[in-house]
Amino acid sequence: MSQPRSPSRNTSSHGLVILNRKSRSFRNRLRHGVHSRDVVLPHESSAAFEALRDLYLARFRPADQPEHDLVETMAIARWRWNRLIAVENKFLDKELRVRSPETANAAEDTSEVEKLASIFERSANRDPTLRLILRYEAHLSRTCASALKQLQTLQGTRPREPHPAAMAIEEMAPGLDRTRIMA
To answer: Where are the domains of the chain?
Structure first.
Protein backbone atom coordinates (compact mmCIF):
# COMPACT_ATOMS: atom_id res chain seq x y z
CA MET A 1 0.00 0.00 0.00
CA SER A 2 1.47 3.36 -0.97
CA GLN A 3 1.92 6.17 1.50
CA PRO A 4 -0.13 9.36 0.97
CA ARG A 5 1.93 12.40 0.07
CA SER A 6 2.43 14.99 2.73
CA PRO A 7 0.48 18.20 2.19
CA SER A 8 3.64 20.30 2.13
CA ARG A 9 5.11 18.17 -0.65
CA ASN A 10 1.89 18.39 -2.65
CA THR A 11 1.64 22.16 -2.34
CA SER A 12 5.25 22.90 -3.13
CA SER A 13 5.39 20.64 -6.17
CA HIS A 14 2.19 21.87 -7.85
CA GLY A 15 1.36 25.20 -6.23
CA LEU A 16 2.79 27.49 -8.89
CA VAL A 17 1.20 25.52 -11.73
CA ILE A 18 -2.21 25.69 -10.05
CA LEU A 19 -1.86 29.43 -9.44
CA ASN A 20 -0.99 29.99 -13.12
CA ARG A 21 -4.04 27.99 -14.21
CA LYS A 22 -6.30 29.89 -11.83
CA SER A 23 -4.93 33.19 -13.09
CA ARG A 24 -5.57 32.13 -16.69
CA SER A 25 -9.12 31.04 -15.83
CA PHE A 26 -9.77 34.34 -14.11
CA ARG A 27 -8.64 36.26 -17.20
CA ASN A 28 -11.10 34.23 -19.31
CA ARG A 29 -13.90 35.98 -17.43
CA LEU A 30 -12.72 39.30 -18.78
CA ARG A 31 -12.02 37.97 -22.27
CA HIS A 32 -15.59 36.97 -23.14
CA GLY A 33 -17.39 38.52 -20.16
CA VAL A 34 -20.05 35.82 -19.77
CA HIS A 35 -19.09 34.86 -16.23
CA SER A 36 -17.48 38.13 -15.24
CA ARG A 37 -18.19 39.39 -11.74
CA ASP A 38 -18.63 42.83 -13.24
CA VAL A 39 -21.76 43.07 -15.34
CA VAL A 40 -20.49 45.98 -17.43
CA LEU A 41 -17.05 45.42 -18.92
CA PRO A 42 -14.58 48.32 -19.16
CA HIS A 43 -15.31 48.96 -22.86
CA GLU A 44 -19.11 48.94 -22.36
CA SER A 45 -21.42 51.77 -21.34
CA SER A 46 -22.60 51.77 -17.73
CA ALA A 47 -25.34 54.20 -18.70
CA ALA A 48 -26.65 51.78 -21.34
CA PHE A 49 -26.81 48.98 -18.77
CA GLU A 50 -28.53 51.27 -16.26
CA ALA A 51 -31.10 52.20 -18.92
CA LEU A 52 -31.77 48.53 -19.70
CA ARG A 53 -32.12 47.70 -16.01
CA ASP A 54 -34.44 50.67 -15.48
CA LEU A 55 -36.65 49.46 -18.34
CA TYR A 56 -36.90 46.03 -16.73
CA LEU A 57 -37.65 47.56 -13.31
CA ALA A 58 -40.34 49.81 -14.81
CA ARG A 59 -41.89 46.93 -16.76
CA PHE A 60 -42.01 44.38 -13.93
CA ARG A 61 -42.39 46.76 -10.94
CA PRO A 62 -40.87 44.55 -8.22
CA ALA A 63 -42.62 44.92 -4.87
CA ASP A 64 -39.86 43.53 -2.62
CA GLN A 65 -36.24 42.38 -2.61
CA PRO A 66 -36.81 38.84 -3.98
CA GLU A 67 -38.77 40.25 -6.94
CA HIS A 68 -36.11 42.94 -7.43
CA ASP A 69 -33.38 40.27 -7.48
CA LEU A 70 -35.22 38.31 -10.18
CA VAL A 71 -35.72 41.42 -12.32
CA GLU A 72 -32.03 42.23 -11.87
CA THR A 73 -31.13 38.67 -12.92
CA MET A 74 -33.19 39.06 -16.10
CA ALA A 75 -31.59 42.41 -16.94
CA ILE A 76 -28.07 41.04 -16.39
CA ALA A 77 -28.82 37.95 -18.48
CA ARG A 78 -30.20 40.14 -21.28
CA TRP A 79 -27.13 42.41 -21.12
CA ARG A 80 -24.78 39.44 -21.41
CA TRP A 81 -26.96 37.89 -24.11
CA ASN A 82 -26.72 41.11 -26.13
CA ARG A 83 -22.92 40.99 -25.70
CA LEU A 84 -22.84 37.42 -27.01
CA ILE A 85 -24.95 38.37 -30.02
CA ALA A 86 -22.37 41.06 -30.82
CA VAL A 87 -19.53 38.53 -30.37
CA GLU A 88 -21.30 36.04 -32.62
CA ASN A 89 -21.79 38.70 -35.30
CA LYS A 90 -18.12 39.68 -35.19
CA PHE A 91 -17.04 36.04 -35.26
CA LEU A 92 -19.16 35.22 -38.31
CA ASP A 93 -18.13 38.46 -40.03
CA LYS A 94 -14.46 37.60 -39.46
CA GLU A 95 -14.97 34.05 -40.73
CA LEU A 96 -16.73 35.43 -43.82
CA ARG A 97 -13.76 37.71 -44.56
CA VAL A 98 -11.14 35.05 -43.81
CA ARG A 99 -12.87 32.38 -45.86
CA SER A 100 -13.75 34.75 -48.67
CA PRO A 101 -11.20 33.14 -51.03
CA GLU A 102 -12.81 29.74 -50.39
CA THR A 103 -16.28 31.05 -51.15
CA ALA A 104 -15.02 32.98 -54.19
CA ASN A 105 -14.58 29.64 -55.93
CA ALA A 106 -18.28 28.95 -55.44
CA ALA A 107 -20.77 29.70 -58.16
CA GLU A 108 -21.27 33.38 -58.99
CA ASP A 109 -24.94 33.23 -58.08
CA THR A 110 -24.24 32.14 -54.48
CA SER A 111 -25.85 34.65 -52.16
CA GLU A 112 -24.22 36.11 -49.07
CA VAL A 113 -26.66 34.14 -46.92
CA GLU A 114 -25.63 30.89 -48.60
CA LYS A 115 -21.96 31.73 -48.06
CA LEU A 116 -22.68 32.51 -44.43
CA ALA A 117 -24.61 29.25 -44.03
CA SER A 118 -21.63 27.35 -45.43
CA ILE A 119 -19.27 29.10 -43.03
CA PHE A 120 -21.66 28.50 -40.14
CA GLU A 121 -21.79 24.80 -40.94
CA ARG A 122 -18.00 24.49 -41.17
CA SER A 123 -17.49 26.50 -37.99
CA ALA A 124 -20.13 24.58 -36.06
CA ASN A 125 -18.49 21.28 -36.99
CA ARG A 126 -14.83 22.26 -36.58
CA ASP A 127 -14.51 25.37 -34.42
CA PRO A 128 -15.32 25.22 -30.71
CA THR A 129 -15.81 29.01 -30.59
CA LEU A 130 -19.20 28.99 -32.24
CA ARG A 131 -20.38 26.03 -30.15
CA LEU A 132 -19.28 27.87 -27.02
CA ILE A 133 -21.12 31.05 -28.04
CA LEU A 134 -24.29 29.10 -28.79
CA ARG A 135 -24.03 27.21 -25.48
CA TYR A 136 -23.68 30.47 -23.54
CA GLU A 137 -26.63 31.97 -25.44
CA ALA A 138 -28.76 28.95 -24.50
CA HIS A 139 -27.65 29.25 -20.87
CA LEU A 140 -28.56 32.95 -20.72
CA SER A 141 -31.89 32.26 -22.41
CA ARG A 142 -32.73 29.64 -19.78
CA THR A 143 -31.57 31.96 -16.99
CA CYS A 144 -33.86 34.73 -18.23
CA ALA A 145 -36.83 32.38 -18.73
CA SER A 146 -36.38 30.81 -15.29
CA ALA A 147 -36.15 34.20 -13.55
CA LEU A 148 -39.26 35.40 -15.40
CA LYS A 149 -41.21 32.29 -14.39
CA GLN A 150 -40.16 32.67 -10.74
CA LEU A 151 -41.04 36.37 -10.83
CA GLN A 152 -44.48 35.66 -12.27
CA THR A 153 -45.06 33.05 -9.56
CA LEU A 154 -44.06 35.51 -6.83
CA GLN A 155 -46.14 38.29 -8.30
CA GLY A 156 -49.10 35.92 -8.56
CA THR A 157 -48.98 35.34 -4.81
CA ARG A 158 -49.03 39.05 -3.94
CA PRO A 159 -52.07 40.16 -1.98
CA ARG A 160 -54.42 41.94 -4.34
CA GLU A 161 -54.81 45.63 -3.68
CA PRO A 162 -58.36 46.95 -3.91
CA HIS A 163 -59.20 48.92 -7.02
CA PRO A 164 -59.02 52.73 -6.50
CA ALA A 165 -62.77 53.04 -7.27
CA ALA A 166 -63.57 50.51 -4.55
CA MET A 167 -61.40 52.44 -2.09
CA ALA A 168 -63.23 55.68 -2.98
CA ILE A 169 -66.60 54.00 -2.37
CA GLU A 170 -65.35 52.71 0.98
CA GLU A 171 -64.38 56.24 1.98
CA MET A 172 -67.78 57.62 0.93
CA ALA A 173 -69.85 54.83 2.49
CA PRO A 174 -67.96 52.95 5.21
CA GLY A 175 -69.27 49.44 5.88
CA LEU A 176 -70.95 49.12 2.46
CA ASP A 177 -70.73 45.62 0.98
CA ARG A 178 -68.30 46.14 -1.91
CA THR A 179 -68.79 42.65 -3.30
CA ARG A 180 -72.30 43.57 -4.47
CA ILE A 181 -71.00 46.76 -6.12
CA MET A 182 -68.07 45.03 -7.84
CA ALA A 183 -70.22 42.20 -9.26
So the answer is: 43-160
